[in-house]
Amino acid sequence: MSLLKLSIATTDYDHFRDFRLGSVQAEGIDVNWMNLGHHECFARFTANREFDVAELSFAKFTTQVTRENSDVVGLPVICSRLFRFSSFYVNKNSGIKSVEDLKGKKIGSPEWAHSAAVYMRGWMHNEMGVKLTDVHWYQAGANSPGRKEKVELNLPDGMQLTRVEDKSLSEMLASGEIDCAIIARPPTCFLEGHPDVERLYPDYLEMEEEYFQKTKIWPIMHIIAMRRQILDENPWVARNLFNAFQESKRRSLERLLDPAVSRYPLAWLPTYARKMQDIFGEDPFPYGIEENRATWEQMALYTYQQGIAHRQFTPEEIFPEGIMTKVIV
């Protein structure tokens, strides 16, 4: 039996490294793996389905997987996950001291279907009393102008969204044209020490630990998506890919936890990794459906509320049937 040839495009994550380099293999599959920036993965897979399997923004994935007769399906493999209370950047002159102060303000994000902003907008709307319609939203490139939305939207009634093509969020935040930016990476104005720009929550680490202890939600930014035709023609592919991703991640964590073989030249990284085990459990970066159910379900709610997903979905709907079937030896 010849191997099934599949193209895969992702960022160069350590937890994918052993699979990408071939020391871990997916049974029956010959992979052609491309290391690309995640924005390039998103754009090329979303626009043209250039790859069989690709890293994809979770928010953008929800739009595509909830289309009628969708041509994509997900794998419960997590490329990137981060808490996002660090992602609020404010102009000091706007007088914002808490999230409640964002009512009536101007807030920007790079795209509406931007996973980091989706989580924080959802938190504001559902838990903090700052509704989607309480804010004038702006969309612009993070540090340079011209960034475009990659998926179709169905914005909630009464919500204001202004798209700016000739300025960046960093410029607008520094000048005070917007009061706040919710952005995955620190904007240039913050990194360069602009005197009027600061984090809303400089104590974000404590907030994030407390949030996880309370909710057991660890926000998922990017997942693995694949063309549904591949699965339809080869039903065995999904689980074999999942197994390989899982084994590759296990080896990555094993290296991280062992100071003798850690790939990263930082003194206390293994110690910090063990602290993560104390918080998250033996596997501090779990894949799978049940292990992440609260997080899958939260994104399903938030993306539907925000006009990104066409409908509110369940985790079982967006992943291959039987992907998590238990195998007991």
Task: Report the CATH C-level class of the largest domain.
Answer: Alpha Beta
Beta strand count: 11
Mean pLDDT across the residues is 96
The CATH homologous superfamily of the largest domain is called Periplasmic binding protein-like II
User: How much of the residues is beta strand, in percent?
Assistant: 15-25%
**Largest sheet geometry:** 6 strands, mixed
Q: Which CATH architecture of the largest domain would you pick?
A: 3-Layer(aba) Sandwich
Structural class, judged by helices and strands? alpha/beta
**Main β-sheet, spatial strand arrangement:** 8-7-6-9-5-10
Label the overall shape. Answer: globular
Number of domains: 2
Order of helices and strands: EHEHEHEEEHEEHEHEHEHHHHH
The portion of residues assigned to helices is 25-40%
Helix tally?
A: 12
Low-confidence stretches: none
Radius of gyration: 20 Å
The N- to C-terminal Cα distance equals: 26 Å
Quick description:
Helix content is 36%, strand content 18%. The chain has helices at 14-21, 38-48, 58-65, 115-127, 169-175, 188-191, 204-215, 228-233, 237-257, 269-280, 293-305, 315-318; strands at residues 4-10, 29-35, 53-57, 72-81, 88-91, 106-109, 136-139, 160-163, 180-182, 197-199, 220-227.
What does this entry look like structurally?
With 329 residues, this protein is α/β, with parallel strands linked by helices. The protein folds into two domains: 4-81 and 219-292 and 309-318, D-Maltodextrin-Binding Protein, domain 2 (3-Layer(aba) Sandwich), CATH 3.40.190; 85-215, D-Maltodextrin-Binding Protein, domain 2, CATH 3.40.190. It is 36% helix and 18% strand. It contains twelve helices and eleven strands. It has helices at residues 14-21, 38-48, 58-65, 115-127, 169-175, 188-191, 204-215, 228-233, 237-257, 269-280, 293-305, 315-318; strands at 4-10, 29-35, 53-57, 72-81, 88-91, 106-109, 136-139, 160-163, 180-182, 197-199, 220-227. The strands form two sheets. Strands 8-7-6-9-5-10 form a six-stranded mixed beta sheet. It has a five-stranded mixed beta sheet with strand order 2-1-3-11-4, with helices on both faces. Helix 4 links the parallel strand 6 (106-109) and strand 7 (136-139). The longest helix is centred in the last third of the chain and has 21 residues, at 237-257.
